[in-house]
Amino acid sequence: MRGTLTILSFISAVFFPWLCTALLAVAASFFEPLVPLAVGLFADTLYYTPQAGVFPLYTLYGAVVTVAASFVRGRLSASPVRDI
Amino acid sequence: MKKTFLARRNALLSSTSVSWGVLALAGAVLLLLIRLLAPNLFWYTFAPVFRASDLLAERSHAFFSSFGDATALTLENERLTDENAALSLKNQELLQRVNDLAELGEDIQGIVAGVVARPPASPYDTLVAAAGLKRGVALGMEAFGEGGTPLGIVSSVSSDFSRVTLFSAHGVTTNGWVGQAGLPLIIEGAGGGVLRASAARSAGIAAGDVVFVPGPGKLPIGAVVRVDSDPASPSVTLRIAPASNLFSISWVELRDTGITAFPPKADPPSAGATSAP
Questions:
Q1: What are the domain boundaries of chain A?
Q2: What was the ipTM of the complex prediction?
Q3: For A73, which residue in chain B has the nearest alpha carbon?
Q4: Between A and B, how many residue pairs show a Cβ–Cβ distance under 8 A?
Q5: Mean pLDDT for each consecutive 10-residue tract of chain B (277 residues)?
Q6: Which of A17, A51, A71 is closest, CB to CB, to B264?
Q7: Where, by residue number, does the polypeptide cross the bilayer (chain A) (predicted)?
Q8: Which conformational region is residue B11 in: left (phi greater than 0), alpha (psi within -120 to 50 degrees), or beta?
Q9: Could B124 and A77 be called an inter-chain contact, meaning their C-beta atoms sit closer than 8 Å?
Q10: Exposure on the CB side of residue B95, measured as CA atoms within 13 A
């Protein structure tokens, strides 16, 4: 599931409208928080041009989702004391 | 025997193996480096992928269109056929005029380039064109679509590819006129292929008025589709739809018109690529 969502997000950045990519990246963030940041970076690598805006928005949006997903995962995870 | 210890918790990195997220991020960073250090190689690699993307978009559009109402499609087809006939006649007339101008010594030939990426896949209202420095493309050249419709300005050039920032890109402004009276306007890109402008309410601008930008003469860039007005304000906001469908542009003509529609900004330095200074 993790791998599929990650790869689909990247494929979507090239083949499908950005909204579809955003949804896939957010879905992937439930399993892999770094994926939205990676997909945002990938989208900006493909499409960003400084004349269209000062900031690479998709990287920034991806970073925000990554931070949010990491925070949520941190809250939901089990106790820091683990037994082996 | 059970051991209890405080595990180092990190939501991003797993202590046992490299996660998909880390791999994805590493891949994205690697592609970014390739684009910055070898932009031409990058676009050569991705051009076939973008072409496949276009093909997919075209096929899917045809598939979903087949579910449309047949009667409406027939009427639309008839209307378009009539319009096409009228445009063909107009085209002949303009072609004759172009020939006359060419005989007068005016060089109006540009560089025709295929489009390898366009909205909505390209989210910033940019086009990637398959022509670059080798074919004489330079920064600031204007891009034109079918029928000579102005689309945008070349904002970045590598050896074999160039990127065109569309007039509809967010924050891009250009001067123009609206209507037959030629009322001056400052046209602003609103993103997503849409333009907007403000005008005085007393100007009496209505939906359907054509908007022009400077080029060789006045060039139609689109038409007013909606006029938003606030009774408390003396001005109205015009919503302008581009004359060309940005989602189906397959080629552009690039030529130098001597007009820079927006102040160029600095591009990150990259070997082999030229961008606006």
A1: 2-76
A2: 0.82
A3: B11
A4: 140
A5: 51 61 90 87 84 80 71 82 84 72 57 79 78 87 82 86 86 82 83 82 81 79 84 82 79 77 45 42
A6: A51
A7: 7-31, 51-72
A8: alpha
A9: no
A10: 6
Residues 6+ apart with CB under 8 A from B213: B150, B167, B174, B175, B176, B177, B187, B219, B221, B261
Q: pTM, whole model, 2 decimals?
A: 0.54
Work out the burial of residue B129: count CB atoms within 10 Å of its CB; fewer than 13 is exposed, 13-18 middle, 19 or more buried: buried
CA–CA dist B95, B82 (Å, integer):
20
Domains and CATH numbers, chain B: 109-277 (2.40.10.340)
The pair of structure tokens assigned to B50 is 């973008």
Q: Which pair of structure tokens corresponds to residue B141?
A: 């050249």
What is the rounded distance in angstroms from the CA atom of residue B4 to the CA atom of residue B86?
83
A26 neighbors A65 (Cβ within 8 angstroms): yes
